[in-house]
Amino acid sequence: MKQVDYIVVGLGVAATAFIKYLLEHQHSFVVINQDFHRASTVAAGLYNPVVLKRFSLVWDARQQLEKMHELFLWYEQFFDKKFIDEMPVFRIFNDEQEQKTWHKKATTHHELVPFLSTDFQQLKIYNDIKDPYGSGEVLATGRIDLRLLIPTLEQYLRQKENLLQEKFRYEDLQIAPNSISYQNLQAKHVIFCEGYHILSNPYFRKLPIIGVKGEVLTIRTEAKLPKAVVKGKEFLFPLSSDEYFVGATYDRDCLDYEVTESAKTELLSGIGKVVDSSFMVLHQQASIRPTVKDRRPIIGGHPTYKNLYCFNGMGTRGTMLAPKMAEILYLHIEKGQPIDNQSDIARFYDEYFD
Length: 354
Ligand SMILES: Cc1cc2nc3c(=O)[nH]c(=O)nc-3n(C[C@H](O)[C@H](O)[C@H](O)COP(=O)(O)OP(=O)(O)OC[C@H]3O[C@@H](n4cnc5c(N)ncnc54)[C@H](O)[C@@H]3O)c2cc1C
Known about the structure:
Layout: E1 2-9, H1 13-24, E2 29-32, H2 39-42, E3 46-47, E4 50-51, E5 56-57, H3 61-79, E6 84-86, E7 89-92, H4 96-108, E8 135-138, E9 142-144, H5 146-159, E10 163-164, E11 173-175, E12 180-182, E13 185-192, E14 209-220, E15 229-231, E16 235-238, E17 243-247, H6 261-272, E18 280-292, E19 298-301, E20 308-312, H7 318-335, H8 349-352
Parallel strand pairs: 1-2, 1-13, 2-10, 7-15, 13-20
Antiparallel strand pairs: 3-9, 4-5, 6-9, 7-8, 11-12, 12-13, 14-17, 14-18, 15-16, 16-17, 19-20
Helix pairs in contact: 1-7, 3-7
Organism: Weeksella virosa (strain ATCC 43766 / DSM 16922 / JCM 21250 / CCUG 30538 / CDC 9751 / IAM 14551 / NBRC 16016 / NCTC 11634 / CL345/78)
GO molecular function, one term: methyltransferase activity
Domain FAD dependent oxidoreductase: 5-329
């Protein structure tokens, strides 16, 4: 039997955030991951503290941003690679009323003042953008290149023989009060970071995780666009000089991983409203966001099997949320610190566990 402190199941942004603490504090661990339509590497990886529909602040935005920068900077130093790409988000206004609402919030809602610019941009200097009512710039925004970070981490773990690239078999888990065995491994704790696949996990599958399917495109266009996220109904941002990432659809009904013509049409029509050019679709992908009925993450231990932990419910904002949740869960396990009521799995003990 090989003894380890932790087994981590999954390798998306949730596991990546948690593993930072295991590396930093030199815990022994094994990651078991089979990449099946992983949401974190289909996603854009954008971070943005403002809800762009209503111009309101994301829950706990300041603290999440701070922890996010801390964690991904740590990975930048660890791998000597760049993963944080600071980029403005320009929200294109649909009409004058939206412009007025933005201005009012940017000047009178003190919690939004640091994040909403009152200097309205005219993206018309980019001839191919249509924004007759101007655009508002959200500050402190950008993208984490999870499409680079996660494979980089994956390769590192493989080299260190810390990674099993296979499906976790729940039937091979044997649980004793102070340790767990899984095949030839003995661990103190198992952390399940399975994203939407949690619904196959016999220990946590009853939790109220609601899937929201999303599709994204990579396109080529000759339009001249800023190095920024341009957000109309859909959003796009540059991946290279003529390739752009376009996202994303939200579908709560059809929860499979197939790409669809209807999503492609919806995305192209959305960007067609703000960019006056032609587009060539290079690539289309789909995955499922693990959202929660009360829109809060779910972290913490199983009510009966105390050394099995859930790290899930990253929803539509895993990039910003996962780093702070990882720190909370790590300190909870190692130092006994409490988990805040809004994120704690304990809020579902009565309703969703036998
Ligand atoms: C189209 C789309 C666009 C998005 N855009 C953004 C965005 O711009 N910004 C943002 O913050 N968020 C975005 N999100 C949301 C974000 O991607 C998710 O919140 C986040 O990726 C969830 O991360 P996770 O680690 O929980 O799950 P995942 O990334 O899905 O990772 C789970 C991993 O566990 C593996 N796994 C599961 N079960 C097992 C098992 N039994 N054995 C072995 N391996 C297993 C899976 O295969 C996968 O590799 C987007 C999501 C989608 C779908």
